[in-house]
From TrEMBL, chain A:
Residues 14-158 form the DUF1468 domain. Keywords: Membrane, Transmembrane, Transmembrane helix. The chain crosses the membrane at residues 42-61, 93-120, 132-150. It comes from Paracoccus benzoatiresistens. This is Tripartite tricarboxylate transporter TctB family protein. It comes from the Bacteria.
TrEMBL record, chain B:
It comes from the Bacteria. The keyword Phosphoprotein does not apply. Keywords: Signal. Residues 1-22 form the signal peptide. This is Tripartite tricarboxylate transporter substrate-binding protein.
UniProtKB/TrEMBL annotation, chain C:
The chain crosses the membrane at residues 20-40, 60-82, 112-135, 147-165, 170-188, 200-220, 319-343, 355-376, 383-404, 410-427, 464-484. InterPro entries: DUF112_TM (IPR002823). Pfam families: TctA. PANTHER family: BLR4373 PROTEIN, TRICARBOXYLIC TRANSPORT PROTEIN. This is Tripartite tricarboxylate transporter permease.
Length: 170, 330, 501
């Protein structure tokens, strides 16, 4: 599973175009004309949205043009297009993003302390090859440091889950 | 279903709001949710209370101030709704708590919060540039009648207290101003001092510096009686020397903004009583009186039925203006 | 003359053991706050305000402003070593600071940054000293059209100089503007583009976006190339420091230009972030020879840092003299002033000379302390980088998410960080420039408000942007910055066929 730059360009252009479309739709609900007291609330986002759609279309077309040139170039014996992501890189990235996603989900349900302890422990243990107790110790030390800096010194409450109140931490 | 239930609970809480000694006390840190960004008027209000409560050990748990000013404060009120029944969260706002749902489609209603107390009233004045031709508020109104829609009147935000007051002046007198919304009172004060707008309706605190410097001057105050005696601010004029708008012939009896404290709906009556008592102590402290004098706000401690009555009147008056201007969100 | 006497009087107030201690403490706390992404200067200062009730106002403002300077210094440290801007105003420093540090010259990069920062701050304070009386009159001339013109100038300066594909720059800019308009629009009082999501009501914070784009995005690029950390280890080598200091006079033109930009943006409400971007953009466009910008060019560090700090210190001037804070941190400090019972405004200079001049004098001293402290503590921060990636990587991830959460205590922001991390990775791989997006998010809403107000004032006539000499000249400079660089590129291509390095 190799992703070509061409595909990434297409995907990005379509995504930015959709963002522009969302802006245009949202703005037209508010009204994008002029009223007695100046431009309506949707005026600015509406035109920005149109510009975004236009620029995205341009990028879409230019991605096709580049792709055709590159294909022609390759057919005439030149270098083939550089891939956006090869299998190996995609694998590494996939694992990291999956871990990130898991971290966010755990953080949202169990709080940021549990989330970061588990995440750091997992990473040091499975990826860094450290022994589990050491990895866990690092994670725990990090969480304690977070607590001291944010909650104790600066009095900023961080996201907590169901476990902290049991330990008397609110 | 739950809404009527919380409404009922709030109503019972109000009835039980006798200053009986509370047997509730916070067991964990208390969060002060401020419906404005850091540094705003509401923020100063909440932090002053925090300082008094902490220093005098009225609340024995730590107090954490959180700013949730997004959506003109709606963020804070939505947060209160999400934390229904939580006795460790107090919300600090103005009249925006009960006025916002009328002008914007929001996922909370005033029943999602229960009022604890109002601790101060911030006054509104009509200000003009020092060298402006208008000597009293009717000069300004008449000028706007002669040239409708040309006199720029600055204010902070749209469909908020300032624009409501300007609309009220227009509806009362038939004048027509060109309302220009800015981001905050300080900004409007500078725009007035620079002559980019002809008038504004800032609170005393927002314009005091410019007045002191002689860049702008007040015409009148929207209060039933003149403001409290004070040291002279500009020349030999102090706050008490400013006439009321009614004295000058503008038929608006009063327009004031309460500084209010709220709990999420659905807490026990003892919780409400506890915080009412705590706010009472704040209102009686010397620090609080200093804060009021410094910011030129009027002392006014309202709670229980008095507060409910005040909110009802204030809300009804504002809604009348909103309806006439066509601002009400359906 | 009068100002000089007052300044000497101010030094008498500022230099006491107690105040020096507050400065050191403030700068140290600022450094920590600045280094941690997401825990920014505005946040840090507002957390300190309740602690200042026990102090007299002069001591309090010295503590708060020292923290601000510390945060500005700290922000540049992580920009250079980690490619993670600790403060939004140090985003532009990453463009050249990080590449230079990666090429093994981290001491040089850091010294350049700190010395430029110190120089910028000094320039800013000198300007404050000289202009204290005069500036308030000038700033009063700024109405809505003038504000819009200044924002327009900031955008134009950056877009005109862009080296990326113009349509990609435009996509980035427009996306930023759209994101900035989400949430309650205070000027029209309507809720925009939330599509019914309560979480979007408060808007999308540019801090959260920056943390995602630059923090997580950069980590993703690191991971793709294997689990090594691309941050740069650094020991401060004193010899390198002096060598770098000796090379500073070479960049005199950049210093003066960036200093002026910073002063301008600090006094007008452009703020340090816009100043650093603008200064970087202009430095890039006006350089002709040498290594290209973005690959570790010294001027690419000098320009944003000088402008950042001169704007940061100049931002104190309109805050004190007018009550118009031109940066988020200045706004918080102004709130503090009011709590202490002082009314910011032109009269403050007349009625509270001890406070004002004590503060101005302290700015000289605490910035000096800042430069020394930051040089001394960099090894401490750099030591973090000897920790293997499998440990420090997840920690940075966690700090990014914690930082994003503390912006407004919203769990929704955690998803935004993840999303913008992916966007940041994709954009940087496909050569979409990120800076216009950030710039648009910071200034977009203000520019729109100023535009709206101007249109209300003029009843919809664009002529208001050319209605007086002040606003017309700002607009003309803006248009020139937008158009001229492209014209000059074409012109010079025709002029000399010789290839440019």
């Amino acid at each position: 599973m190799t992703i070509k730059v061409f595909h990434a360009e297409l995907g990005t252009a379509v995504a930015t175009g959709l963002l522009g479309l969302a802006g245009v739709i949202g703005a037209s609900e508010l009204g994008y004309g002029w009223e007695e007291s100046g431009p309506q609330a949707g005026y600015f986002p509406f035109y920005v949205g149109l510009i975004l759609i236009g620029a995205s279309l341009w990028n879409l077309v230019s991605a096709f043009v580049h792709h055709r040139e590159a294909v022609a170039h390759a057919a005439s014996g030149g270098d083939t297009e550089e891939p956006f992501l090869d299998r190996e890189r995609a694998g590494r990235l996939g694992v990291f993003i999956a871990a990130l996603l898991a971290f966010v989900i755990v953080t949202l349900t169990m709080g940021i302390y549990v989330g970061s302890i588990l995440y750091i422990t997992w990473s040091a243990w499975r990826q860094g090859g450290y022994r589990l107790p050491l990895a866990f110790g690092v994670g725990l030390a990090f969480a304690v440091a977070l607590y001291v800096i944010f909650e104790a010194i600066f009095k900023i409450p961080l996201l907590k889950g169901p476990i902290e109140p049991l330990l008397g931490i609110y | 279903m739950t809404k009527t239930k919380t409404g009922l609970l709030a109503a019972t809480a109000l009835m039980l709001a006798a200053p009986a000694f509370a047997d509730f006390a916070p067991t964990r840190p208390v969060e002060f949710i401020v419906a404005s960004g850091a540094g705003g008027g509401t923020d100063n209000f909440a932090r002053t209370i925090q300082a008094v409560l902490t220093r005098d050990e009225i609340v024995e748990r730590p107090i954490v101030v959180l700013n949730k000013g997004g959506g003109s404060g709606a963020e804070a009120f939505l947060y209160a709704r999400q934390n229904e029944g939580d006795p460790h969260k107090l919300v600090f706002g103005t009249n925006n708590v009960y006025l916002l749902p009328h002008v914007a489609k929001l996922a909370y209603t005033v029943e999602d919060l229960q009022p604890v107390a109002a601790l101060a009233l911030d006054e509104f004045l009509v200000w003009v540039k020092a060298d402006s031709p208008y000597q009293n508020v009717m000069d300004l109104v008449n000028a706007a009648k002669e040239a409708p829609g040309t006199i720029p009147f600055g204010g902070s935000q749209s469909k908020d207290t300032d624009e409501t007051l300007v609309a009220l002046i227009e509806q009362t007198t038939g004048a027509d101003f060109k309302y220009v919304p800015f981001n905050g009172g300080g900004e409007v004060g500078v725009q007035l001092a620079g002559g980019h707008v002809a008038a504004n309706v800032n609170n005393p605190n927002e314009n005091a510096g410019q007045w002191q410097a002689g860049a702008i001057r007040p015409l009148c105050v929207f209060a039933p009686q003149r403001m409290a005696e004070s040291e002279p601010v500009s020349g030999d004029m102090g706050w008490h020397d400013i006439p009321t708008c009614k004295e000058q012939g503008l038929e608006i009896e009063s327009y004031q903004m309460p500084r209010t404290v709220w709990l999420p709906a659905g807490t026990e009556p003892e919780v409400l009583a506890y915080y009412q008592a705590a706010m009472q102590k704040v209102a009686e402290s010397q620090d609080w009186k200093d804060y009021l004098a410094k910011t030129s706000q009027s002392a006014s401690f309202l709670t229980g039925n008095e507060l409910a009555e005040f909110i009802k009147t204030s809300e009804a008056n504002a809604v009348k203006v909103f309806e006439a201007e066509g601002w009400t969100a359906q | 003359m009068g100002n000089f006497d007052l300044l000497m009087h101010g030094f008498g107030i500022a230099i006491t053991p107690m105040h020096l201690m507050l400065m050191v403490g403030g700068v140290m706390m600022g450094l920590i706050v600045g280094v941690l992404p997401g825990l920014g200067a505005p946040n840090g200062v507002s957390l300190l305000i309740p602690l200042t009730f026990a102090l007299d106002p002069t001591s309090a403002i010295i503590l708060l402003s020292s923290m601000y300077w510390g945060a500005l210094f700290g922000g540049s440290t992580t920009s250079i070593l980690f490619n993670i801007p600790g403060e939004p105003s140090s985003v532009a420093t990453t463009f050249d600071g990080y590449p230079l540090a990666r090429s093994g010259q981290s001491t040089r990069a850091l010294t350049l940054a700190f010395m430029s920062a110190g120089f910028g701050a000094l320039l800013g304070v000198i300007v404050i000293t000289l202009l204290a009386g005069w500036a308030s009159n000038f700033a009063l001339k700024f109405g809505a059209p003038e504000y819009f013109a200044v924002y327009f100038l900031a955008f134009a300066a950056f877009i005109g100089m862009g080296s990326a594909a113009p349509m990609k720059t435009l996509v980035s800019l427009a996306a930023g503007l759209l994101l900035a308009s989400v949430g309650m629009d205070s000027v029209t009082g309507s809720i925009r583009l939330t599509f019914g999501f309560e979480d979007l009501l408060g808007g999308i914070s540019f801090l959260v976006v920056v943390i995602g784009l630059f923090g997580i995005g950069e980590l993703l690029s690191t991971v793709q190339e294997g689990l090594r950390f691309r941050g740069v280890a650094s020991k401060i080598d004193l010899r390198d420091v002096f060598k770098t200091i000796a090379e500073l006079p070479r960049y005199w033109a950049t210093y003066i230009r960036s200093g002026l930009i910073g002063i301008w943006m600090g006094i007008t409400p452009g703020g340090p972030t816009a100043a650093s971007f603008m200064s970087y953009g202009i430095a890039r466009s006006s350089s002709r020879k040498g290594v290209p910008f973005g690959t570790g060019r010294p001027e690419g560090i000098v320009a944003p840092e000088t402008a950042d700090h001169s704007a940061g210190s100049c931002a104190m001037l309109p805050m004190l003299a007018l009550g118009v804070p031109s940066s988020a941190t200045a706004a918080v400090m102004m709130g503090g002033l009011m709590i202490w019972g002082l009314t910011p405004g032109p009269m403050l200079f007349a009625t509270q000379p001890d406070f004002v001049w004590g503060l101005i004098a302290s700015m000289y001293v605490s910035n000096l302390i800042g430069v020394i402290l930051v040089l001394a503590t960099v090894p401490m921060f750099a030591a973090l980088l000897r920790i293997p990636f499998t440990i420090i990587g997840p920690m940075i991830v966690a700090i990014c998410f914690v930082g994003a959460y503390t912006v407004s205590n919203a769990t929704f922001d955690l998803w935004l960080v993840l999303l913008f991390g992916l966007v940041g990775y994709l954009f940087s791989r496909l050569d979409y420039p990120l800076a216009p997006l950030v710039l648009a998010m910071v200034l977009g809403h203000k520019a729109e408000n100023a535009f709206h107000q101007s249109m209300v004032l003029s009843d919809g006539s664009l002529g208001i942007f050319f209605a007086n000499p002040l606003v017309s000249s700002i607009m003309i400079v803006g248009i020139a910055l937008l158009v001229l660089p492209k014209l000059m590129q074409h012109g010079s291509r025709l002029w000399r066929r010789a290839p440019v390095e």
